[in-house]
Amino acid sequence: MSLDAIIRLTEIMLALAVLQQSVEHFLGGRDRALFGVRILACLWMLTGWHSDGAVVTLWLTGLVYLHRFNGPYNGGADKMTMLITTCLMAAHLAPPGQWQELAMAYLAVQLVLSYFVSGYVKIVNPEWRSGRALVDVFRFSAYPVSESLRSWAARPRLLWLMSWSVMGFEVIFPLALLHPVALWIGMAIAATFHLANACLFGLNRFFWIWLCAYPSLIWFQDRVFGG
After folding, report:
1. What does the H/E/C string look like for the chain?
2. Fewer CB within a 10 Å sphere, N or C end of the chain?
3. Along the chain (227 residues), what's the average pLDDT of each consecutive run of 10 residues?
4. Beta strands in 112-202 (DSSP E)
């Protein structure tokens, strides 16, 4: 796919992801002015008409959002949302050509690092290597895990295997860039991992927002490693 097509696809996916979040906040009755503007910006972006203005609007309201909640209250999902928005804005405002490519390449590299660094941090942690970290997640976590899933805490061997599966996949994810088929397989596994987290722990925003960065990775792999 061309760079322009990747940028447009990223815009559409980001607009849908942020629209879902913003509607939830708006219907909840909190900060309706802020999230009303974000809803309008998402709808504007979906039309494709001067979408650069919609991206800038999302970026500016994103800053207000971070100030209002004293930082990314939803953690990594909010950080990734702001990263994608910033890279899209840079791609729109930059001169056509190399600078646009650098903006989307930066997004792709940050996505790869998000997996690798997460895996590295886990693998140097003895509690993750022993499986204890996941035991504690299921036993003590405040996430909305059902009682039947909490019983997994009594299955340390299973959680040890799950721990090493996650860590191993995350640290080798950069190798998926070496071949397009490997990349598609890697993204499918990663998406399944995010979906599992959404189903098990209610981390649904991670699933949608990380998918929004995948088009940049597809373009980056072809641009740098496609030969």
Report:
1. CCHHHHHHHHHHHHHHHHHHHHHHHHHHCCCHHHHHHHHHHHHHHHHCCCHHHHHHHHHHHHHHHHHHCCCCCCCHHHHHHHHHHHHHHHHHHCCCCHHHHHHHHHHHHHHHHHHHHHHHHHHCCHHHHHCHHHHHHHHHCCCCCCHHHHHHHHCHHHHHHHHHHHHHHHHHHHHHHHCHHHHHHHHHHHHHHHHHHHHHHCCHHHHHHHHHCHHHHHHHHHHHHCC
2. C
3. 94 97 88 94 96 96 87 79 96 91 97 97 95 85 65 87 96 96 97 90 86 97 86
4. none
The residue among 13, 18, 38 whose CA lies nearest residue 211 is 13
Structural domain spans, the chain: 3-225
pTM beyond 0.85: the answer is yes
The first and second tokens of residue 87, run together, are 């890279």
> What amino acid occupies position 214?
Y
φ and ψ of 124, to 5 deg: -90, -5
